[in-house]
Give the backbone structure.
Amino acid sequence: MAYAALVLACGVTLWSAGDLNLGRNPWPNLARTLADFAHPSFLDAWWGNPRLEYRSEDGTLLRVEDRRVVERSFLLALARGCWVTLQIATLGSLLAALMALPLALLAARNLGAPRPLAMAARAVLGAARAVHTLVFGLLLVGIVGLGPMAGILAIALHSMGTSGKLQAEAIEALDMAAVDAVRATGAGPLQVFFHGVWPAVLPQWLGSHLYVWEFNIRDSTVLGLIGAGGLGLLISEATSLFQWARLATLLIAVVLLVAAFDALSRHLRQRLL
Amino acid sequence: MSAVNAMSAVQIDGLQVAAGGRVLLQVDHLRVAPGERVVVVGPNGAGKSTLLRCLSGFAVPSSGRVEVLSRTLAPQALSSPALRALRADVGQVLQGLHLVARLTVLQNTLVGALGRLQGAPAVRSWWHRFPPAEVDAAQQALQAVGLAGRADDRVDRLSGGERQKVAMARLLLQRPLLVLADEPTASLDPAAAQAACALLRQAAESATLISIVHDPALVPLLGSRVLGLRGGLIVFDGPALALDAAVLSGLYGPETAPGAG
């Protein structure tokens, strides 16, 4: 009931603000975009026009370009973009998992960390999760400048929240009796961690790390939009120049990248758990 | 050892453990001499496990005095290092054994040595590197319990009886002065339970042994003195031979029956 009322309220306010329409001529726009998408630009690298002539209004020849050469250099840039995206996601996720571990140990309700510390750790993890990667990215671009480093740190800060929550849950699902048995031998806190906690949470830790990593591959493809490097930079270029054919190429690359990584992580998960 | 021998292994005075407004355990006076073999019996919820947890510092009494191996656990709580030093001397076999599932048989056995490692060996133990002497001792302990060939198997691939043996090997390696065993034979078949009791006696050969069991048939295997608990009170304290049907029905019977002893 409350949900239906909420949906209704959303619809009515949108309509009364005059935003409930699809623009002036959606169908021709859609048709044009689809036509461009149907011919992704990477095909030009092999079958492109070798002598594309650009002429001004009065017919003078402005310049001639070989579409094949242009597209091949674009594909090279695309490959570099994919690599930077992978770099950002990989290093960012690893940094996130490492930063999250001590916080997760404090935040887990069953390990008995001092209350103020546990609350602080949970607050930090919650805040990190609440702020989107893109927002962290915008902040960090202002601090460390344009480039992949801003992306890595943005991913690390946001994913620290997700990763920490998953890790804390893994620790909370732990067999505490086994941990107590290690503690009962007079082992110190770090010995208890390495003999009782770590071996038991390792599979979940790896599983959550893979999940966050996978997620970040997707997330880091858009980080370039705000100047944090990677594929997003090319995407923002293509969209601002209305080069839908190139955008099609880029999206195909993103889908392939994500699908390849998903398959890889599924494979790893089966091997590790 | 001689200093410990001169005193009690366990000395309790005016102990009370309460949780949520309910008294779980009340022991006015209890003394266990070094080397004594004590079996604790009683129905579920009688406070048996709570008594054992007080002796290892896992439960904190609301009031009273607890001394274990001439170290005072209550009313003043021990500092963390002192508590760890005490626990290194107190071997525990808990209900359900509690091995670390993803570690191997040998690694689980070596957990028994953690408490006595100091300095660099303690740090090296973080990545499961132990002094060769400890590894040899662990192998001997596994030999003693009959698991010599299984050292590198993960414990979650073992049967219940084999896990029991790993817990015993861990206890053997720990070489404690006081052994606390909370239903060490739970979920074992009768033959395996008898074998487990024999191993437990072996592990506690030169130590004091306090164990909790439910099966009256196992009582004479584990001790000569019996403590009967009911409703958080010690209602029977006598030789194992005196534990007859009347005493047992007093312990486990309906609430209205008068407690024995």
Notes: Residues 160-174 of chain B form the longest helix (15 residues). The longest strand of chain B covers residues 22-32.
